[in-house]
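User: quick one, fold this
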Amino acid sequence: MAARSSNGRPTVRAASLALTLAVALGAPVTTAVAQDFEAILAAPDDETLNLAYAREQAGLGNLALAASTLERILILEPNRHSVRLFHAVVLYRLGDLQGARDQLRRLEAVQLTALQRAEADSYARRIDQGLATRSFSGSLSAGVSYEDDAAGAWFTAFDLIGAPPAEEGVSSEVSLILEGRADIGPS
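Assistant:
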């Protein structure tokens, strides 16, 4: 039984203890209420309720629940193009690039609003980059340092014998890193 104050409400101490235990035990702390899921179970064909639940779960970061709810909506109503686009985005965020690509391909011949088409095209480009068999990237960095005993610091750092006389100096370093990949295929 929870500790209650004189007015019958749970105390702040009891509420903070429950929250601390939930975090310590790794339980997800969300604002989703159990009644929401109970309502979904009671009315699995209610598209409006399911869509609201999927949006809530995606907003909370529960992407797997959002994806399964969106799949249920698309099974009932496969021509809900905005839901299909939302499903593609959720799959992309889950790392299922192939599933997201499949959902976006189904939208290629469909009339979407300009904003929806721009979002679909943007995610299609991101997916193509993520699934590309060829890529190239690189980085360039530079640095400058002043040392009152530049040569001595170099020899001391590596325990070399016969260090040169101390002298002031400026040192610099430039680094270039290039990375690439290509699918060489079976041939």
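User: anything notable?
Assistant: Helices lie at 12-24, 34-42, 47-60, 63-76, 81-94, 97-106, 114-131, 150-157.
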